[in-house]
Amino acid sequence: MSSLPQPESTAQWYEDKVRTYGFDHRGLGFRSRSSQVKRFEALLRVGELDGQRVLDVGCGFGDLLAFLHERGIEPIYTGIDVCEPMVRRCVERFGESGRFVAADVLDYEPAGSFDYVLASGLFGLDAEDTRERILPTLERMVSWARTGVAVNFLSAAYPNPAENRIYVEPGKAIEAALTLAPSVRLDHTYLPNDFTLYLYRSPLWACDSEARTA
Predict the structure, then answer these.
(1) In terms of Cα–Cα distance, which of 156, 163, 166 is closest to 193?
(2) What would the DSSP string read from start to end of 98-120?
(3) Between the CA of residue 113 and those of 23, 55, 127, 145, what are the distances in Å?
């Protein structure tokens, strides 16, 4: 079990958004649908997801799963979210095509591992203890992933930050990531205020070496 407090304030914030805006990007705190899609497109660059076991941490309304299906990508999908109304919406929306669990990522205990673990918008809200939860969350995500992790952050390099949001220094994110995985890259090209961090359990250079000697 987690030693950090449960994120009740985070769950309540999202529940309030759902009541106000319903089941669209505004209920998730995104300013526009297009920015959500650009973040999803960045997550896709982690690797080949079709047929792979994928965990979506902070799955919201299951929009990432819908995004994948629209592109013909059919993962063996699990989504978790701390906000129970969102999880209920996912079950209504997808039925048996995905597995959804209401859980805090720091308390979640999966039955097995995943090929890829993804998270979009997970650390955006500056709620109590969120900053302290970032590294423990990344540690768990990496421990569950057989191949790789992709997670996005709001960038501290952006000159016009919004209130009540967490902005992360890209350089510090790379430093932290390298303590968790041997192979890391960062993409700061798709939005001015966002970057995606990719962490790989097996170094990509090792995979290339194995391919050459096979």
Answers:
(1) 156
(2) SEEEE--TTT---SS-EEEEEES
(3) 30, 9, 29, 6
**133 Cβ neighbours under 8 A, 6+ residues apart:** 4, 7, 106, 123
Chain segment 140-196, per-residue pLDDT in tens: 999 999 999 999 999 999 999 988 889 999 999 999 999 999 999 999 999 999 999
The rounded distance, in Å, linking the Cα atoms of 159 and 155 is 9
Architecture of the domain made up of 8-213? 3-Layer(aba) Sandwich (3.40)
Q: Kindly report whether the global pTM for this prediction surpasses the value 0.85.
A: no
Distance from C-alpha of 51 to C-alpha of 164, rounded to nearest angstrom: 38
Whether the CB-CB separation of 151 and 119 falls below 8 Å is answered with yes
Matching residue, tokens 């967490």: 166
Length of the chain: 214
Best CA proximity match to 204, nearest among 175, 181, 186: 181
Place of tokens 């990508």: 73
Read off the amino acid at residue 72. Answer: G
